Amino acid sequence: MTIGTPSRTWDDDRLVAACLAGDEQAWSALIDKYKNLVYSVPRKYRMSPDDAADVFQSVCVDLYNELPKLRSVASLRAWLLTVASHHAFHWKRRYVKRSEREGTPLDEDTDVAAAPPEADVLETVQREQSIREAVAQLTPRCQEMIRLLFFTQPPIAYADLARHLNLAVGSIGFIRGRCLQKLQKLLGDVIR
Predict the structure, then answer these.
(1) Over the stretch 69-83, which tens digit does the pLDDT of each residue have?
(2) 28, 54, 70, 80 - which has most CB atoms within 10 Å?
(3) Rounded distance, CA 111 to CA 4, Å?
(4) pLDDT reading at 57 higher than 70
(5) What is the DSSP string of 118-174?
(6) What single DSSP character describes residue 2?
(7) pLDDT band per the 50, 70, 90 thresholds, residue 88
(8) What is the DSSP letter of 11?
(9) Long-range CB contact pairs, 108-115, < 8 A, 24+
(10) CATH 1.10.10 fits domain 137-192
(11) pLDDT over threshold 80, residue 103
(12) What distance in Å separates the CA atoms of residue 97 and residue 113, rounded to the nearest whole number?
C-alpha cells in the first residue's frame, strides 16, 4: 500500500513502484508528470493537435504494457522520448506516403517536410523537459512570473504582471532577475 497520495512530485522509483502495485492515482500522477514531455515530441514533428494526441495515447498504451518490463526506472524518461519519437517518425512516414499515393498536397498546418531530424527533436524535447522540471521547483510566485513572461503569447506587459502578482511595477525586473538566477542554478549545465 502506498503511503500518501501519489503526485507528480514523487520520484520515478516511487511512482513506478506504486503503478506496478496497481495504484491508479500513481498511474495518473506518472502520466501527468510526463504528459508535456511525451506530447511535445509529436508537436515538434509539426503534427496536428489531434494526431499528436493519437501519438500520446499510443505512448501511454505502450507504457502501460511495458512498464513491468522496464529494466531501469532511471531510463524511464529516455524510454518515453524514444517511444514517442518512433511513433511520431512512423506517423510522419505514413502521412507523406499517403499524400504521395493519393496525389494530395501535404496539409499546410502539418508541415512534416519542415520537421527537424529525429536527433534534434529528442535533444530539444529533453532540454524543454529539464526546464519544465526546474521551473516546477521554483516558488509559486517565480513559477507564475516565469510562465507569464516567457511561456505565454504574447508576453504579458510588466504593468499587467505587477497587477496579477500584486507587486509594484518597479520590483518586477529585480524579482524576475532573482527568479532567473534560481532557475539557472537549478538547470546547471543544461542551458550552457
Answers:
(1) 988 998 898 899 889
(2) 80
(3) 45
(4) yes
(5) HHHHHHHHHHHHHHHHHHHTS-HHHHHHHHHHHSSSSPPPHHHHHHHHT--GGGHHH
(6) -
(7) confident
(8) -
(9) 109/48, 110/46, 110/47, 110/48, 110/51, 111/46, 112/45, 112/46, 112/47, 114/46, 115/44, 115/45, 115/46
(10) yes
(11) no
(12) 12
Tell me the C-alpha distance between 75 and 73, whole Å.
Answer: 5
In the chain, residues under CATH classification 1.10.1740.10 are: 1-115
Cell of 22: 496497481
Q: How many CB atoms lie within 10 A of CB 132?
A: 14
At which residue does the C-alpha cell 512530485 appear? 9
Indicate yes or no: pTM above 0.70: no
| Domain 1-115 grouped into CATH 3.30.56.10 | no
User: What is the pLDDT of the chain when averaged over all its residues?
Assistant: 82
The segment(s) of the chain belonging to CATH 1.10.10 are 137-192
So what's the pLDDT on residue 62?
95
